[in-house]
Design a protein that fits this description.
globular; mainly beta; Jelly Rolls; Pept_S26A_signal_pept_1_CS
Length: 548
C-alpha cells in the first residue's frame, strides 16, 4: 500500500534515496583520496626506485642477491646492465660473483656444480623522498638528496632524477685525497684574474644557469698532498650514525671459507696460541684469554689463491674492493668508469666484537693500524674507563680518558673506528663522547715507501700488512663475533683533486665511488633542481629503514 502511494505521488522510497546517497559518498571519498594522494606526491612525499648501483651499498639498484658457497655470506651484485642496456648498448647477464668477505670467485659453471641456481635480478630499493625538506631547511653535508640531472632534467618525456650524497656546500673548494674528502673556503676565484697568456683563469658562463657544468668547478689535479695544509683544508668528519652507514665489510670471522679450514693460518690468529683457549683450533670463532700478561690476537688480510687453496698466501693491504661491482657478466664488458681503476689501500678501519668479561679481568685493547701509527681503545676493566692512545715510532701518547661503563663481569658489544682522522668507540651500540680530544692531526707519510707500495699510498708493512687490526687482553676476557670494516673510499685519479662549488650549487658524490657518475665527472647540483631528501627505504621490507 505504501509503495503504491509513493509511486502515485512521484516520491522515491527511502531505500532508493539511501542507496544513491551512499554511492555519492563513495564517489566523493574516492575523488578526495585521489586528489589527496596527488597533492601529497606533488608537495610532500614521493616514491622513487633506485635504478643503478652508484649509491651501493647504502642503497641498492638492480641487483642479484648471492650467497657465497664457501663462507655463506649473503651480498648483492650489480645487475643494472642485465635489466637495462649499458652505455655501450649491451645487456649483460650476471652469472657469477667475487665474495667481498672471503674473496671466493664463483663462475656460472661453479654455481651449477654446487647445484644452486643463479638468482634472478631484483629491482632497486624503493625510497620515500620528503620534498619540502630543502624549503624548510638548508641542505646539510652528508644528506642524501634526490635531484634532477642538470644536463638533461627530462629525456624522452621521462624525468632524469639522480640520488647522491651531498659533500660540498656553496663557496667551498672540495679536495679528494686518498679516499677522504676535505673542504676549505680560503681559496678564491677572481672573475678578472688572467693567465700568463692573457686568458681568464676562472671563466664564467654566458648564462648563470650553466654554472653547474664541470668546467666551472675549475678542477685541478696535484701529485702531492701538501696543498691541503697550505690552504687550510679540513677533513670532513662524519657523525657516528653516518660512519656506520658508510662502512663496508672487510671480513666477518663468523663466515670463514669452508675449503680453507685447516689449510694454513686463519685471518684472525693468536700471537701465542698456547695462551688462548679457542672453540675450534682450525677455524676459531671464539678466543678466550687468560693469565696475568697481555696477549694478542692479530688480523691479517689473507686473500687465497682459489686455484690452489692449499698453498699459503701472503697478507695484503686492505683495499676499496667492492663485491657489488665484481659480478661476472656475459657477454662483453662494462663501459669506462672509475670502476676500472686499480683497488686502493684503505687505512680507515673499524673493528667490532662481543667481549665476555670475567671476574678479575684487567684490560681489553682494540687496536687499528694506519701507516706509521697505531691507534688503541684501551679499556681498564678495573677502573671502568677507556683511554684513546696513539702509538708512534717514538712511543705511545694517551689522547684522553673517560668512563666507559665496561667494568663488571658481563658481555659487551664493542666497536672501535679510526675514520676521518678521528677515533670513535661504541659500547652496546652507543658512542662514547670523547669530545675534540678524539680528533688527531693527519698521519704523516713514511720517510721511505715500501718497495711494494709503487703508488706511494703510504702503507707500512709492519702495520698495514702484518697487523692492521689487533685485540689484546689481560685476564679472563673472551672475544667473539669479530668483524672488520673499512670506511667508504672516494676515488680520484691523482693524489689530490680539487673542485670549486659555485654559489647556489652543491657537490655530490655516490657512495659506490668507484662506479658512480657524479660531481667528479659532470659537475654540480643547482639548488633549484633539488627535489627533496631521501628519508627511508620502504621496500623490500627486509631493507626497510631510515637512510643515513
Amino acid at each position: 500500500m505504501s509503495n503504491r502511494a509513493n509511486a502515485a505521488t512521484g516520491t522515491k522510497a527511502p531505500a532508493e534515496e539511501e542507496n544513491k546517497s551512499s554511492g555519492r559518498e563513495v564517489a566523493e571519498t574516492v575523488v578526495f583520496v585521489v586528489v589527496l594522494v596527488m597533492l601529497l606526491k606533488l608537495f610532500v612525499a614521493e616514491a622513487f626506485v633506485i635504478p643503478t648501483g652508484s649509491m651501493a651499498e647504502t642503497l641498492w639498484g638492480h641487483q642479484k642477491l648471492f650467497t657465497c658457497v664457501e663462507c655463506d655470506h649473503q651480498f648483492p651484485v650489480n645487475s643494472a646492465d642485465e635489466v637495462e642496456p649499458n652505455q655501450l648498448g649491451m645487456q649483460q647477464r650476471v652469472v657469477g660473483y667475487t665474495c667481498p668477505n672471503c674473496r671466493y670467485r664463483s663462475t656460472a659453471d661453479a654455481i651449477k656444480r654446487t647445484q644452486r641456481e643463479i638468482p634472478n635480478a631484483s629491482s632497486g630499493d624503493r625510497v620515500l623522498v620528503f620534498k619540502p625538506q630543502y624549503h624548510l631547511n638548508e641542505p646539510r653535508r652528508f644528506d642524501v638528496p634526490v635531484f634532477k640531472y642538470p644536463e638533461a632534467p627530462q629525456r624522452d618525456y621521462v624525468a632524469m632524477n639522480y640520488i647522491k650524497r651531498l659533500i660540498g656546500l656553496p663557496g667551498e673548494t672540495i679536495a679528494i685525497s686518498q679516499g677522504n674528502v676535505y673542504a676549505t673556503t680560503a681559496l678564491t676565484y677572481p672573475a678578472d684574474e688572467l693567465t700568463e697568456n692573457g686568458e681568464l683563469r676562472f671563466p664564467q658562463p654566458d648564462r648563470k644557469q650553466d654554472l653547474w657544468n664541470l668546467e666551472y668547478t675549475y678542477p685541478q689535479s696535484y701529485s702531492e698532498n701538501d696543498l691541503l695544509a697550505k690552504h687550510d683544508f679540513r677533513i670532513l668528519r662524519k657523525s657516528p650514525v653516518k660512519m656506520l652507514a658508510l662502512s663496508r665489510l672487510v671480513f666477518d670471522n663468523d663466515h670463514q671459507p669452508k675449503s680453507l679450514i685447516g689449510r694454513g693460518r686463519p685471518r684472525w690468529f693468536p700471537e701465542h696460541p698456547t695462551k688462548w683457549s679457542m672453540d675450534d683450533a682450525k677455524a676459531p670463532k671464539r678466543f678466550a684469554g687468560q693469565g696475568e700478561e697481555r696477549i694478542w690476537l692479530r688480523y691479517q688480510h689473507l686473500i687465497p689463491n682459489w686455484n690452489d687453496p692449499a698453498t699459503p698466501t701472503e697478507p695484503r693491504v686492505i683495499t676499496n674492493f667492492m663485491g657489488y661491482n665484481a659480478g661476472e657478466e656475459l657477454p662483453g664488458k662494462r663501459g669506462p668508469s672509475f670502476e676500472n681503476e686499480p683497488n686502493k689501500w684503505v687505512g680507515d678501519l673499524m673493528l667490532e666484537c662481543d667481549a665476555v668479561v670475567g671476574a678479575g679481568a684487567q684490560e681489553l685493547i682494540l687496536e687499528l693500524s694506519k701507516s706509521v701509527d697505531r691507534f688503541q681503545a684501551k679499556f681498564d676493566l678495573k677502573a671502568g674507563t677507556c683511554t684513546l692512545v696513539r702509538v708512534r715510532a717514538t712511543g705511545a701518547e694517551d689522547l684522553t680518558t673517560i668512563p666507559s661503563g665496561v667494568q663488571s663481569a658481563g658481555t659487551y658489544q664493542l666497536r672501535f673506528a679510526n675514520y676521518d682522522d678521528a677515533l670513535t668507540v661504541w659500547v652496546n651500540g652507543k658512542p662514547l663522547d670523547f669530545g675534540p680530544a678524539a680528533q688527531y692531526p693527519p698521519v704523516l707519510a713514511p720517510l721511505e715507501y715500501d718497495a711494494e707500495d709503487t703508488s706511494k699510498e703510504g702503507w707500512v708493512r709492519a702495520n698495514d700488512l702484518q697487523q692492521p687490526a689487533s685485540i689484546g687482553v689481560i685476564g679472563p676476557v673472551a672475544v667473539e663475533h669479530l668483524k672488520l670494516f673499512r670506511d667508504t673510499y672516494y676515488t680520484s685519479r691523482s693524489k689530490v683533486e680539487t673542485y670549486y662549488v659555485q654559489p647556489g650549487h652543491y657537490f655530490c658524490l655516490g657512495d659506490n665511488s668507484a662506479a658512480s657518475a657524479d660531481s667528479r665527472s659532470w659537475g654540480l647540483v643547482p639548488e633549484r633542481l633539488l627535489l627533496g631528501r631521501a628519508l627511508l627505504v620502504y621496500y623490500p621490507l627486509s631493507r626497510a629503514g631510515l637512510i643515513e
